[in-house]
Structures are given as C-alpha cells and as structure tokens.
C-alpha cells in the first residue's frame, strides 16, 4: 500500500488522541508560541525510544521556554503508554496513546510488524513533526528504522533562528 507523505507548508493532518491522564488532545486546539512538536515513538517495546524520550525529557523545560509544546505519541494501548511514561521518567510530557494505523498513514509514518513476541502486531516507526500555531506543517522527519533519529539538541538550538528569520518550511516542492 502506498502512503503519501504530508507536505510542509500545507495544513498538517488532523490528530485527535487520548492522553494517559484521561484527557482528550486535539492538534487543532493547540496554541504554542512557536510549534507543537509531535514525537512519534515505536512503543514500550523499544529501548531506543526509551533513551531518545529520556533525553528529550531532560530538555523539556528548554523546549517550553522556546515556545515549543511537546507530545509523545504511539500506537500502544493506554496501559503500555502509562508504563512507558512512568518507567521511563517522562513526566510531565503529555503522553498520547492509541494512534491508529489510519492516523499513522495520514502522517506518513512507516509501519512495521512484530518480529518477536515482545513487539506489537503492528506499530509505527519513529517520526517527528513540527506544526505552527496556525496548523501549518513546518517540518516532518520520519524513519523506517529505530536507529535513525533527529539531533534534538541541534533542533532546539535552531528554534530562535527559525522564529527570528521567519525561516520558511523546506520540502514544499514534494510530489
């Protein structure tokens, strides 16, 4: 099945999720100063996700200071998302769960199937999206493997530059 990738500079795909705290989260309701950053992670079964999200947690306050609201999202059910949030020490980053295959495809995420008993039958590979306050997709980074992730410290260091220069989204000529 072919998947079309969302194109930066266009409206971001919709995203409505449940949070582990029992609240609803809707992308269109977000109002960050700079960006909403959606961190798509593989799930509780992924030790690389644990390390990546733990590093992100270490800089969470700095992201907020730069005007970037963060949410971690996976296809895991609530119980596994709660366990990851607790065991990985991710509080207070909002944790969404139950991303559907259709939502993952809307965002252009790569999907994988279980290769052992510890993995879910279907799960998304990692991804990162930045959405402007007006709902425009500014940046999208997807990986087909758990081993490739963006340099979050470098991205954090560029938020002010992007805002000050009104740096445009790139990749807008995608098919």
Automatic annotation (TrEMBL):
<dbReference type="InterPro" id="IPR036249">
    <property type="entry name" value="Thioredoxin-like_sf"/>
</dbReference>
<dbReference type="InterPro" id="IPR000866">
    <property type="entry name" value="AhpC/TSA"/>
</dbReference>
<dbReference type="Pfam" id="PF00578">
    <property type="entry name" value="AhpC-TSA"/>
</dbReference>
<feature type="domain" description="Thioredoxin">
    <location>
        <begin position="6"/>
        <end position="164"/>
    </location>
</feature>
<dbReference type="InterPro" id="IPR013766">
    <property type="entry name" value="Thioredoxin_domain"/>
</dbReference>
<protein>
    <submittedName>
        <fullName>Redoxin domain-containing protein</fullName>
    </submittedName>
</protein>
């Amino acid at each position: 099945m072919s998947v079309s990738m969302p194109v930066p500079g266009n409206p971001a795909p919709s995203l409505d999720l449940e949070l582990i705290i029992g609240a609803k989260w809707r992308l269109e309701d977000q109002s960050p100063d700079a960006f909403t950053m959606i961190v798509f992670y593989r799930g509780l079964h992924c030790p690389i996700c644990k390390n990546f999200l733990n590093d992100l947690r270490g800089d969470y306050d700095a992201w907020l200071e730069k005007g970037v609201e963060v949410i971690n999202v996976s296809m895991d059910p609530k119980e596994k998302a709660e366990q990851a949030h607790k065991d990985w020490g991710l509080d207070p980053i909002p944790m969404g769960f139950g991303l559907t295959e259709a939502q993952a495809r809307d965002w252009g995420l790569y999907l994988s199937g279980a290769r052992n008993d510890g993995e879910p039958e279907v799960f998304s590979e990692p991804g990162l999206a930045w959405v402007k306050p007006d709902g425009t997709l500014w940046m999208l980074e997807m990986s087909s493997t758990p081993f490739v992730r963006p340099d979050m410290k470098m991205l954090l260091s560029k938020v002010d530059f992007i805002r000050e220069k009104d740096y445009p989204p790139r990749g807008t000529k995608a098919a």
